Amino acid sequence: MKRVVVAPGDGIGPEVIPSALEVLRFFHPEWEYIPVYLGYECWKRTGDALSQRTLETLKKADLILFGAITTPPDPKYHSVVLRIRKELDLYANLRPVFGEGFDILIVRENTEGLYSGIEWQEKDRACTLRVVSEAGSRRIARFACGCAKRRRRHLTIGNKANVLKSDSYFLDICMEEAEKAGISIDKKYIDSLVLDVLQHPGRYDVIVTTNIFGDILSDAAAFLEGGLGMLPSANIGRHQALFEPVHGSAPDIAGKGLANPIAAIRCVSLLLKYVGEKPSAIEVEKAIQKTIADGIKTPDLGGTATTEEVGRAVLSHL
Ligand code: ATP
Ligand code: MG
């Protein structure tokens, strides 16, 4: 029995999440599903993008299926996703990237590094503190090694240890953990790593890196796949996990039935893998492939199908 909190959010979030939810319900009609209202629209209506009550509900969730949230350029508005990551301590951000001849898992540290949130402004400069702690590095390193053990047992450590003390610290801890786990490693400077992943994706298995480097690397790696509408991600904590498409709320296409629901549906595949149901996860992926092969695609993939039609087609293949 799992408690699943469903947060569609803004823009195309409420359009793509229903398709994903139907797929999840197909496998687990017995689970508890709790919808929550949060985000920019919620902020405009209630003055609060993430109420205390909603946060408490999220904290009690085993699994969270998250749509997307519009981040307005209003200084009074604080990012909901960042707050959730922090409050729930979702320390590992996972981005699978796979296709013909490659299958990569990017594991990004999600709570510290340059996104430590420790910032201040002085008279003639602004500072952001890059924090790399032993505990933070060790847990992400162990997590990445755990993933590598279940895959091809290879870990690449993306770093800039030649310039940054904080990265040299991160690198040492990752190497220690990899050695303990019996995982083969290679170290790569993040700048050349980004290029090499794009040129030779087949060389990589699991890649672990610090927060901002992981952010940049994952977006660059999106180039290897079919675009924003196709990519899922997971944010993993100690006892819970949040799954969200990589894309944002895409206000330009919202409300028109044009949004590609595949990224959201792939979130369900990740979720099923997370709870140990790999065969179901593979089944979802196959259903997606069949749907695309049948030409049932939204306009971003060159088709004419609507969000709902794609969702229904995927479901029909399960
Ligand atoms: P936000 O401020 O929420 O990040 P955004 O305008 O940056 O919104 P994104 O969702 O990040 O929008 O995506 C950028 C563009 O990619 C959108 O303008 C949209 O046209 C396209 N896009 C994103 N997601 C999808 C999707 N699921 N299906 C089709 N097109 C998409
Ligand atoms: Mg965006």
TrEMBL record:
InterPro entries from the UniProt entry: IsoCit/isopropylmalate_DH_CS, IsoPropMal-DH-like_dom
First-level EC class: oxidoreductase
Keywords carried by this UniProt record: Oxidoreductase
Keyword Oxidoreductase carried by entry: yes
EC identifiers of the protein: 1.1.1.85
SMART domains cross-referenced by the UniProt entry: Iso_dh
Top-level taxon of origin: Archaea
Oxidoreductase is among the record's keywords: yes
MF-aspect GO terms: 3-isopropylmalate dehydrogenase activity; isocitrate dehydrogenase (NAD+) activity; magnesium ion binding; NAD binding
Isopropylmalate dehydrogenase-like domain location: 3-314
Pfam families listed in its UniProt record: Iso_dh
Record GO biological process: isocitrate metabolic process; tricarboxylic acid cycle
Gene3D superfamilies in the cross-refs: Isopropylmalate Dehydrogenase
SUPFAM superfamilies: Isocitrate/Isopropylmalate dehydrogenase-like
Family label: Belongs to the isocitrate and isopropylmalate dehydrogenases family.
Protein name per UniProt: 3-isopropylmalate dehydrogenase
Organism (species): Methanospirillum hungatei JF-1 (strain ATCC 27890 / DSM 864 / NBRC 100397 / JF-1)
Lineage: Archaea, Methanobacteriati, Methanobacteriota, Stenosarchaea group, Methanomicrobia
